[in-house]
Write a structure and sequence with these properties.
Blueprint (H helix, E strand, L loop, with lengths): L1 E4 L12 E4 L16 E3 L5 E7 L5 E7 L6 E2 L7 E5 L5 E6 L2 E6 L6 E5 L7 E3 L4 E4 L8 E4 L6 E2 L11 E7 L5 E7 L5 E5 L5 E3 L7 E6 L4 E6 L6 E5 L6
Antiparallel strand pairs: 1-2, 3-4, 4-5, 5-6, 7-8, 8-9, 9-10, 11-12, 12-13, 13-14, 15-16, 16-17, 17-18, 19-20, 20-21
């Protein structure tokens, strides 16, 4: 397993390429075709990843980045799409047909809401609500991290709104969410959680995935039409 970051050419004083190799234990393997098999806390100290153990079962593992050992999250068999709470005290994931959360310090997972076992991303906001995509065609939904009644935020229409709204990510103000649109005319949009108004941020018809916003104001994403390509675009979120 490895990941890297690279400053874009437009930055006046670019940082050098930084790569971090994180070998898995000998009895673990990264499964294929799992959405987002890893997540990192905001302070960059803890990694959550999905792996298949020596017994053949897929589980969620937590590993502090200053240590070699990783530990399995109890009750996380079949997990996918991990994400952390803003304070890093909880890790969320999908397993057993439900959105769940577990304390990083330990303990059994808590069910938040029943849903399909697919999941196309989730993001935990500073207001205590989780924005998630339960299925590929469901649109984005929101629910309190403590459970309750989910609220639908967006609805694909297989036209201008595309056929999928996936991979949500809260922006720094906590009141806006960046997400991917598959199909339609604009692959990335920003949703205002107060008005539920969505704005396009890039003029393109190519589908993208894995959106992330860097502190530099750049958006990084993968191009679904170009296998293995990681791209970057400078955007002005303040004008939206």
């Amino acid at each position: 397993m490895w990941f890297g970051t690279r400053s874009a050419p437009e930055i006046a004083d670019p940082s050098p390429v930084a790569r971090v190799a994180i070998p898995l234990p000998a009895d673990q393997r990264q499964p294929r075709l799992l959405q987002y098999p890893l997540a990192i806390t905001r302070d960059g100290t803890l990694l959550a990843y999905v792996a298949r153990g020596g017994d053949g079962i897929i589980r969620l593992y937590l590993r502090p980045l200053d240590r070699v050992e990783a530990r399995a999250v109890p009750g996380s068999e079949g997990a996918r799409a991990p994400f952390f709470s803003p304070d890093g005290d909880w890790v969320g994931f999908v397993a057993y047909g439900a959105l769940r959360k577990a304390r990083v310090a330990g303990g059994e997972p808590v069910r938040i809401v029943q849903m399909a076992s697919t999941a196309f991303g989730a993001s935990w906001g500073p207001d205590g609500n989780i924005v998630y995509a339960p299925t590929i065609n469901s649109g984005l939904w929101s629910i309190s991290a403590d459970g309750g009644e989910p609220e639908q935020l967006t609805q694909p229409d297989f036209g201008e709104e595309g056929y999928a709204h996936v991979w949500p990510q809260h922006l720094g103000d906590g009141r806006r969410v960046l997400y991917n649109v598959w199909g339609g005319n604009n692959p990335e949009r920003v949703l205002d959680l107060d008005t539920l108004e969505a704005k396009s941020i890039r003029g393109s018809t190519s589908e993208s995935g894995g959106l992330r916003i860097l502190p530099t104001g750049h958006m990084i994403y993968s191009d679904r039409e170009g296998v293995g390509r990681l791209l970057a675009a400078q955007i002005d979120l303040g004008s939206m």
